[in-house]
Design a protein that fits this description.
With 461 residues, the chain is an alpha+beta fold. Helix content is 47%, strand content 19%. It starts with 10 loop residues before the first helix and ends in a 17-residue tail after the last strand. The chain has a six-stranded mixed β-sheet. Strands 2-1-5-4-3 form a five-stranded antiparallel β-sheet. The chain has a two-stranded antiparallel sheet with strand order 6-8. The radius of gyration is 42 Å and the shape is rod-shaped. It has seven helices and 13 strands. The chain has a domain of 160 residues: Heat Shock Protein 90 (2-Layer Sandwich), CATH 3.30.565.
Length: 461
């Protein structure tokens, strides 16, 4: 591997790794969202069952203590000698007659709705315990259990026990907070694990891509010299009239043309390799984008004239961006060359430059055949050429990929709008330079004749 090769920038696969991590975390989150409610309902039900069982057993125990040889008396536990406020009691008991009248209220609990006459009558009628709920506006909600006290199979009294639901509600809240905390922790751990796993998984991919990119860069660099020599020697033969035979001269002319073609391809491959390595944009100076666009338009005028196409520079705002002037001019040349090649004889290509908010918008509009909607998503793919390219249109399918890479390196965007049979518009959006804060009136210009387009302009349609 040549010493010119550089390590692959982490940002090249950062987006892929980030999407994998987010996908992994999303799967874990979705799983937790499905299992979380199930776990909460299940354990919440168990908490409620345990709460009810505790109240039932306590009430049945007190009911058993109340059964004495003569009459009915309630065994009093000192724990229940609490203030009469209902909210101050964890549990309370009220002894009732089979008709629901209060016989004994050792805790002194008095509140509207106590005792629960409907539950008492149901328990006396059925002969077994009945659970019920009591809702109060000032003391909260309570769970009640009415137990029956029998002697010789006959209901002689009822014992209604109650307990505040605040404890159950607090336990459910704690369960919910615990599940949320565990879920959040699981997602964080999953994201961290996904990061480590994807980093390890991406290493061989990164290494392979780095080796491939280095090979392309090195091969492109090494091929430039022999291709230049082949082209130069062939041109010398033609200029020196060393080959008088017309057929031989035609062969040498073919050699010159193919060497030039291969030279442009090698240059494009080297440009892409430098883009991948993040080494293409070396300067970020204030750039007068209007001057860059005007220069590119002038350079494309001769090619447009030969093809019978009019290149017109429309509205042009004086805007300044931060970047590499040479590479931005290359973008303009690629888009202009692309538009001229796909515009039929008598058609028009218009270039406009305007300011929109804090961005400069360069638009190249043509009156060509347009691009089918199915082709637009693949338009910027390397070596992709749309079916319309088969009609003798030159190019390698790399121009738009290079243009998009340069624009992205300038933190901008390259978009396309197209209507079949009407034409296409390629729009480049670039952030304005920090010092360029005030809007400047637009000016108009017209393209003039200049040398033909530069290398590296083939596009991917």
């Amino acid at each position: 591997m040549s010493a010119r090769s550089v390590s692959l920038p982490r940002s090249l696969f950062a987006g892929t790794q980030r999407r994998l991590i987010l996908s992994y975390a999303a799967v874990v989150t979705a799983t937790l969202l499905l299992l979380g409610p199930i776990l909460y309902v299940q354990y919440s039900g168990q908490l409620s069952d345990g709460f009810n069982q505790t109240l039932r057993l306590a009430t049945q125990r007190q009911a058993g203590l109340a059964l004495v040889p003569t009459g009915v008396a309630l065994g009093i536990n000192p724990h229940f000698q609490a203030p009469p406020s209902l909210a101050d009691h964890d549990a309370f008991f009220v002894l009732l007659t089979p008709d629901g009248d209060v016989t004994s209220n050792p805790s002194g609990v008095t509140h509207a709705g106590l005792p629960d006459q409907q539950a008492a009558q149901q328990a006396a009628r059925q002969g077994y315990g009945v659970p019920s709920d009591l809702h109060t506006a000032d003391a909260g909600d309570f769970r009640l259990y009415t137990a029956v006290i029998k002697r010789n199979g006959v209901v002689v009294a009822l014992l209604q026990g109650g307990r505040s639901l605040d404890a159950l509600t607090a336990a459910r809240h704690d369960l919910l907070y615990l599940l949320l905390a565990l879920g959040a922790g699981t997602v964080v751990i999953a994201a961290a694990g996904g990061f480590l796993l994807t980093r390890e998984a991406m290493r061989p991919i990164t290494a392979a891509f780095s080796a491939q990119r280095a090979f392309v860069a090195d091969a492109s660099h090494e091929l430039r010299t022999p291709l230049t020599l082949i082209r130069t020697n062939a041109e010398v033969l033609l200029e020196a009239s060393a080959v008088p035979d017309p057929e031989d001269r035609a062969l040498i002319e073919d050699i010159v043309a193919e060497a030039e073609h291969m030279g442009r391809l090698v240059t494009d491959l080297l440009t892409l390799a430098r883009l991948d390595a993040g080494a293409l944009i070396r300067t970020r100076d204030p750039v007068d984008l209007a001057a860059v666009v005007a220069a590119a338009t002038r350079q494309m005028a001769r090619l447009a004239t030969r093809r019978g196409v009019t290149v017109r520079q429309g509205e042009t705002a004086a805007v300044t961006v931060q970047g590499d002037a040479g590479r931005l001019e290359q973008v303009a040349l690629i888009l202009l060359d692309n538009a001229v090649k796909y515009t039929t004889v008598g058609g028009e290509v218009e270039v406009t430059l305007r300011r929109e908010g804090q961005r400069a918008l360069l638009a190249v509009r043509d009156t060509g055949p347009g691009i089918p909607d199915a082709e637009i998503p693949r338009l910027f793919a390397r070596f992709h050429r749309a079916p319309t390219s088969a009609a003798g249109t030159e190019g390698h399918g790399l121009g738009l990929a290079i243009a998009e890479g340069i624009v992205r390196a300038h933190r901008g965007h390259l978009r396309v709008r197209s209507t079949v049979g009407v034409g296409s518009t390629f729009e480049v959006g670039l952030p304005l330079a920090a010092s360029h804060a005030m809007a400047i009136p637009a000016r108009r210009a017209t393209a003039s004749v200049a040398p033909p387009p530069l290398d590296g302009r083939e596009e991917g349609r």
